[in-house]
Write a structure and sequence with these properties.
Length: about 240
């Protein structure tokens, strides 16, 4: 009896950046490498076949997703991208932009039939602008703050979920200990909440980041509001291994 195919995970983390002439451009992303390694280990423990890639150029990033179209996949495809970014864009280590819509086009039903019916789940740790979120004090009857939420509607393939570290136009924070967003994801993957349906799991991450986390150092006290968009038609449990 043949073994079922493993679900696949592609983790891309860019920490060092340069331009075409070799000059430094964006700042070094300290803490991101170790964070990505921990997430890869957590996914491996959940029976994912994980491909962890460091410091890839814009073209190499596109090529990695092209390669996934030729792989054998299990029930789910998960991808984590950790890099510098702007709204709708993440940057390769060569400081060249990759439009997220380009990645989604590569994985569309027309260009990637093998992933047509398989849920595709993205977690994107990158800035979406330069605004700083100072946070707000929320009054409620329970005495506990409740996070607001926001969904940015993108052109995404069928059966796809995309979760962003922050809302459109805002900064996503990272320090030497890691990012608020991916640390919250790691906490969920390593805890009992991993058994939740994906939409509930992501809402828990929203709450954890928005309510329990704040930036340190230069931006001490600033907040972050993750958000996600989904066109799944049913509940899925991708991490309930």
């Amino acid at each position: 009896m043949s073994q079922p195919r493993q679900s696949r995970a592609l983790v891309i983390v860019n920490t060092h950046f340069h331009s075409g002439d070799g000059d430094m451009t964006f700042g070094t992303r300290k803490g991101a490498k170790r964070e990505a390694e921990k997430l890869s280990t957590a996914l491996s423990r959940l029976n994912y076949e994980v491909k962890l890639m460091h410091n890839k150029t814009a073209k190499e990033i596109e090529d990695l997703y092209q390669q996934e179209c030729r792989r054998e996949h299990g029930e789910y495809f998960v991808s984590i991208i950790s890099s510098h970014g702007e709204e709708g864009v993440i940057f390769g280590c060569d400081s060249e932009p990759v439009k997220l819509t380009r990645i989604f086009q590569i994985l569309s039903s027309k260009k990637c039939p093998v992933l047509t019916k398989i849920p595709k789940i993205f977690f994107i740790q990158a800035c979406r602008g330069r605004e700083l979120d100072q946070g707000v004090v929320v009054e409620c009857d329970s005495g506990k703050p409740k996070p607001d939420s926001f969904s940015d509607y993108l052109s995404i393939p069928p059966q796809t979920v995309v979760m962003f570290a922050c809302s459109p136009g805002y900064v996503a924070f990272l320090n030497i200990s890691g990012s608020m967003f991916l640390q919250a994801l790691l906490k969920v993957l390593e805890g009992e909440e991993r058994h939740l349906a994906l939409n509930r799991l992501m809402t828990r991450i929203n709450w954890e980041v928005a309510v329990c986390c704040q930036a340190r150092g230069t931006y001490e006290g600033c907040k972050e509001m993750p958000c996600f968009v989904t066109n799944l038609l049913q509940e899925v449990f991708p991490f309930s291994a």
